[in-house]
Specification:
It is built from 5 helices and 4 strands, in the order αβαββαααβ. By secondary structure, the chain is α+β, with helices and mostly antiparallel strands. The protein is globular. This is DUF1330 domain-containing protein.
Length: 123
């Protein structure tokens, strides 16, 4: 199961950059006992997010799925706004940040990290 972005994922992320801010959708499924490790990661990542100009918009536990096939529900959802893809990449490339990413990896059974692009405002 996918948990961490790979080199080809990052290349595509860079190549498809439309410029401007993005909101990163994070969907996670925890391993047995993984919540504690993820909570430790979440605390450690916050200063790096703020340094990158990121804004946590929402974090919460998954609940009742109204429309989902079996196996499509998630344990937690997070939305984080970054000023740019470059800011996100700078954050995750920081050697100090890399020192604690193992906490996230160890916590998760499966994850989705999907960049979103804001829709143009309607008149």
């Amino acid at each position: 199961m996918a948990v961490d972005p790979q080199g080809t994922d990052i290349q595509k992320f860079i190549q498809e950059d439309p410029g401007g801010p993005l909101v990163m959708l994070n969907l996670v499924r925890f391993k047995e006992g993984g919540r504690a490790s993820f909570a430790e990661y979440a605390t450690a990542v916050m200063p790096f997010m703020l340094k990158a100009g990121a804004q946590p918009l929402y974090a919460g536990d998954g609940s009742t799925a109204l429309v989902a096939d079996p196996g499509q529900t998630w344990d937690a959802v997070m939305l984080v706004r970054y000023p740019s893809r470059a800011a996100f990449l700078e954050m995750v490339s920081d050697p100090e940040y890399q020192r604690f990413t193992h906490l996230r990896t160890a916590a998760l059974h499966e994850a989705v990290m999907q960049a979103t692009i804001p829709w143009a405002a309607s008149p």
